[in-house]
Each structure stands twice: as structure tokens, then as C-alpha cells.
Amino acid sequence: MATNGGFGFFDRRWVRRGKAGEFELALPEGVEALLVNLLGQLEELLATDASVTWRLFPTAYPDNAQAEQEFQDLVRDDLVQQQRDAAKLVISTLQHETLTEDEVSAWMRSTNSLRLVLGTILDVSEEEPLVVEPADPLAAMVSAYEVLGHLVDQIVTALREVG
3-state secondary structure string, the chain? Predict the structure, then answer.
């Protein structure tokens, strides 16, 4: 399995709800740089309409190609802009120690989008676990996928907490 950055990396809370309802952010070393890197790559993928982004755009009419194309023509630009806006917000708040609920929600959307794209690239499925050897060229991507999954989980947990 790919390395997770060392013992204890996933053991502590990265996001938690504070007493006043704000969200406290304490990312481990390297996660900020990972997010900046991956969000930049996502921007490039969105600009080129890359096929690995298909999971970011819901299918409304799977059995009707014409209706589906009309739907995508109608909503795709807005969905791309929402992705870009959320990514910009994440980057602009990376150094913050606390986040608002709107900010942490944008973090969740962006982090999950990155995870979906990586999952598409890695061909992740629920049937087979994602296992690679440390020397595998995909090991870094698998580690990033694991980090993103953990961050999404941390955010969802924090959103459920009572302030």
C-alpha cells in the first residue's frame, strides 16, 4: 500500500468545529502544498475539458443523448465556474486557522472533486481495494487520494459536530 506520510499522519484531527461554531484547521505539513498543486492541475483539466473530469458533471439523462447534451450545454459552464470559485477560496484560506461554514463547505467540494478526478485516473472501484507497492509510479497519486479522502472525512465529521 502507498505510504501515508508516516506514523501518526492520520491520527489527529485536521478539521474540527470550535466552540463558537467556526471550523478550526490544522493541516499536517505538506497537505497545503498538495492542495495547491492539485487544485492548479484541476484548473488545467477544467480548461481543457479533460475526460477525467466526467464525475464532476452529473448525468441527468443517461438514456437520451440529445437531452443530455442540452442539459450539459445549459449547466456545464456554471458547474465549472463553481469548481473554480471553490478552488480559489480554498487557496485563499489555506493559511487561515479558522474557517466559516461556507468556507469549509467549499473546501469539502474542492477536496472531493480532486478525489473524484484522482479516483477516475486510478480507476478506483468499490470491488477492489486500491493497493500499490511504494516503488510503483502511481504510489504518490494513491497517497494523495488517501489524503484527500481523509480530509473529506474530517470535514464531514466537523460539519456534523455541534458548536
Answer: CCCCCCCCCCCCCCEEECCCCCEEECCCCCHHHHHHHHHHHHHHHHHHCCHHHHHHCCCCCCCCHHHHHHHHHHHHHHHHHHHHHHHHHHHHHCCCCEECHHHHHHHHHHHHHHHHHHHHHHCCCCCCCCCCCCCCCCHHHHHHHHHHHHHHHHHHHHHHCCC
Number of domains into which the chain is organized: 1
Contact 113, 42 (CB under 8 A): yes
pLDDT tens-digit series, residues 119-145 = 999 999 877 777 888 888 899 999 999
**Is residue 144 included in any domain, yes or no?**
yes
| Residue 96 placed within a domain | yes
Whole domain around residue 28: which residue ranges?
15-160
Would you say the C-alpha torsion 37, 43, 46, 50 has a positive or negative sign?
Answer: negative
Q: What would the pLDDT profile of 24-55 be if each residue is shown by its tens digit?
A: 999 999 999 999 999 999 999 999 989 999 99
The angle formed by the CA atoms of residues 150, 152 and 153, to the nearest 5 degrees, is 65
